[in-house]
From TrEMBL:
It comes from Novipirellula artificiosorum. Gene3D superfamilies: P-loop containing nucleotide triphosphate hydrolases (3.40.50.300). Signal peptide: none annotated. Residues 5-230 form the ABC transporter domain. The gene is ecsA_1. Keywords: ATP-binding, Nodulation, Nucleotide-binding, Transport. Belongs to the ABC transporter superfamily. One of its GO terms (molecular function) is ATP hydrolysis activity. This is ABC-type transporter ATP-binding protein EcsA. SMART domains: AAA (SM00382).
Length: 306
């Protein structure tokens, strides 16, 4: 099957910053793809380009087989979108906003919306302005899903929501992927990404630092602790295919985050002059994220882990 999203060397230049700096992506259908990044990393800018609301400075992309720059309305008919602060008409009732949105889609939309609102136990006669933040989020999700889109794009959707509503959102992502649909989740909530994602990309300063299946992240990244006799001791470099993401020194202890570490490398370190002990374990996603978004790593290799 063809990728549902592709991006090739996307850039976005604003007057005072480069929001995107050569973004390449390929997202397969039927998966939950998580774009993990700090605030200001470029996630929302990328989403605006993918949904046709912003033309890139250079590069190209396709969403559901369409070019968002040339056919933005065609793309939006194929997708659902939920932001962290959904823009809804406050003066409408829940039923009215469902009817208004249904006018853009086929006859099934209204029935699907009503069923979704009923499942979330929201009064259709209640005005949007009187809904809680969690209820507004549920209405926004219902609107985004009622035309059964091939792709659901969510930009920090659980920000500020209580745990119960957050759980509903996470379950909806898993349910979508189970039916062969695709979810694109932009977030900085690492715990949520770990619960739902099939594939994770880490974005920093407008670049994709890493893209890998979550299962690979859990198996191929290691946290290594090395005790040395002398804080100034130089350690031997790790051979290929090992890749160093970060290194910290605290007194006589070195801490590394390493990709593709194997037992022979650990043995080599233990035998190195001045080394007292070497310990290693699988790195957490949070440790990998911090390593990828550290200044040292970001300035040296956005390409190493692509």
């Amino acid at each position: 099957m063809k990728p549902i999203i592709t991006a090739d060397s996307l850039t976005m230049h604003f007057r005072r910053c480069d929001a995107l700096r050569g973004v390449d992506l390929q997202i397969e259908p039927g998966t939950v793809f998580a774009l993990l990044g700090e605030n200001g990393a470029g996630k929302t800018t990328l989403i605006r380009i993918l949904t046709g609301y912003q033309a890139p400075s250079s590069g190209s992309c396709r969403v559901c087989g369409l070019d968002p720059t040339r056919d933005p309305l065609g793309v939006r008919r194929q997708i659902g979108y939920v932001s962290d602060s959904p823009a809804l008409y406050d003066w409408m009732t829940v039923s009215q906003i469902g009817g208004f949105t249904a006018s853009f889609y086929d006859d099934r939309f209204r029935d699907h919306f009503n069923e979704s609102v009923r499942r979330y136990e929201i009064d259709p006669a209640q005005r949007i302005r009187n809904l809680s933040r969690g209820q507004r989020a549920k209405v926004a999700l219902s609107l985004a899903l009622s035309h059964d889109p091939a792709l659901l794009i969510m930009d920090e959707p659980t920000s500020g929501l209580d745990p119960k509503v957050r759980r509903n959102f996470l379950e909806s992502m898993i349910d979508r992927a189970a039916t062969g649909r695709t979810v694109f989740l932009a977030s900085h909530q690492i715990s949520e990404v770990e619960r739902v994602a099939d594939t994770v990309a880490i974005m920093h300063q407008g670049q994709i630092c890493l893209t890998a299946p979550l299962s690979e992240l859990r198996e191929s990244f290691f946290h290594v602790v090395i005790d040395v006799e002398d804080p100034l001791r130089t350690l031997p470099p790790l051979p290929s295919p090992a890749e160093m993401l970060s290194e910290e020194t605290e007194g006589r202890q070195r801490q590394w985050i390493v990709r593709h570490l194997d037992p022979s490398m650990v043995s080599m370190l233990r035998e190195a002059a001045g080394v007292i002990d070497v310990r290693h374990r699988v790195a957490t996603l949070e440790e990998v994220f911090i390593a990828c978004t550290s200044s040292d790593f970001a300035t040296s290799s956005a390409e190493v882990l692509s």
